[in-house]
Amino acid sequence: MRRLLCVALLLSLSGCTVRPAPARWVTPSPPPPTIAPHLAQVTPLSPLPLPRGTLDVSRQEVTYNRQGRVLRTVIWQPATTAKVPAVVFSHGLNGTPESFEPLLTAWAAAGFAVIAPAYPNTTRSAPRLDVYDVLNQPADASFVLRQVLAGPLGNRIDGTRLAAAGHSAGAITTVGLFTADRDARLHAGIILAGSGLGVGTAFTGTPASLLFVHGDADPMVSYASGKATYDVVPWSKAMLTVPGGNHNDPYLRPDMRSFTEVRTVTLAFLRLSLYGDLSARRQLPHSSSSFDDQL
Fold first, then answer.
1. Cα Rg, the chain, nearest whole Å
2. What is the pLDDT of residue 288?
3. CA–CA separation, 191 vs 172, rounded Å?
């Protein structure tokens, strides 16, 4: 079974972040899901004072080693004396943390520390890209988060307000943090152009709020596979459909209108989930055709 899952990952994720896949690749869709009859509501966090205005952002790199797996990690930190929530972000196959800098620095400037590891066998600089290694990445993400919290930066992060996010193979990594490799510290998650392929959809542990974002013209990770995974999430959740959105532009290109929408919605979701800011709901879309809101 594991081998079959890995083959499916190979077919669906080759070149997923930066280099568009050839048209011959076909992403397999999972079977129709059994939708949970009711959703387990997430216990809201107490309100935390929001930063005033846009914060300056500093960037630093640290390197961790998990049993021989070298994890270069980029951290974007907002300039504030208060402890802030944090998001661990996972890039896609053939990607880097820096590829997502426009989006991740926007999160940091709004008051979130962003922790972004470069995975050893799927980052752009890897000697040989290994799509099978995606299945090891949820454990990498948890390890990096643990190391950051235990180090000097941990004094500037509120360890009770943590989320995970990722794109494509990194979104699959993120789903894994709520399924097979559940990280109990996580209160929220953002899945950008991802699915449960390879890591399963057996969501487990304390309920967490999840936001899915998917372009309905994504040729690499099909919209149907992302929607099928979203449908079986048994917790508070929302899904933004990007009309005409492909696999990369809504997350990587600040000149695109879709990027602006993704930035706005993800920030509102993070403020609502990690700052307990109920007013952030006003920044969420009201169109039922593009935004399914079950938060």
1. 17
2. 76
3. 8
- The Cα 36–Cα 31 span in angstroms is 15
Q: Which residues of the chain have pLDDT under 70?
A: 1-37
Tokens of 34: 């059994």
In a domain, 34, yes or no: no
* Residues 106, 112 contacting (CB under 8 angstroms): no
Domain housing 285: 2-15+56-294
Sheet holding 84-90, edge to edge: 57-66, 69-78, 113-118, 84-90, 157-167, 186-192, 209-215, 237-242, 291-294
**What was the pLDDT predicted at 13?**
59
Would residue 31 count as lying in a domain? no
Give me the pLDDT at residue 30, please. 44
Residues 6+ apart with CB under 8 A from 67: none
Q: Are strands 237-242 and 291-294 parallel, antiparallel or unpaired?
A: antiparallel
Q: 154's torsion region: left (phi>0), alpha (psi -120 to 50) or beta? A: alpha
Which pLDDT does position 29 carry in this prediction? 40
User: How many independent structural domains does the chain possess?
Assistant: 1
Provide the 8-state DSSP code for 251: H
pLDDT at 149: 98
First vs last C-alpha separation in the chain: 34
- Would you report the helix, strand and coil content of the chain in percent, each value rounded to 5? 35, 25, 45
- Quick check: is 8 in a domain? yes
Give a yes or no: residue 240 inside a domain.
Answer: yes
Which CATH number covers residue 148?
3.40.50.1820
Distance between CA 239 and CA 31 in Å, rounded? 19
Reduced to 3 states, what is the DSSP secondary structure of residue 126? coil
Question: Which is nearest to 31 in space by CA: 7, 8, 6?
Answer: 8
10: phi then psi, degrees, rounded to nearest 5 = -60, -45
